[in-house]
Design a protein that fits this description.
B12D; 88 residues; membrane
Length: 88
């Protein structure tokens, strides 16, 4: 049975499945540990709805959003300028 699935042509399928499971796991752990709306302990769940805007803002404004906030949405700016700027 193992020789049926462990052939070289199946490796990309395993890699894609592994990446998908990794992304799902990352999202799950990030939301459980950092999301202010997810409460795991019984005491926190009993508190009801909290109006904690500072914690929500901290969760929303993560490092990646701060990094790309003032950047142009271009993948290859040099090529874009070459084809659109008349000075070249």
């Amino acid at each position: 049975m193992a020789s049926r699935w462990l052939r070289p042509e199946v490796y990309p399928l395993f890699a894609a499945t592994g990446v998908a499971v990794g992304i799902c796991g990352f999202s799950l752990i990030r939301n459980i540990t950092g999301n202010p709306e997810v409460r795991v302990s019984k005491e926190n769940r009993a508190a009801g709805i909290l109006d904690n805007f500072a914690e929500g803002e901290k969760y929303k404004e993560n490092f990646l959003r701060k990094f790309v906030r003032n950047k142009h949405p271009e993948i290859m700016p040099g090529i874009n300028k070459f084809f659109t700027d008349p000075k070249y």
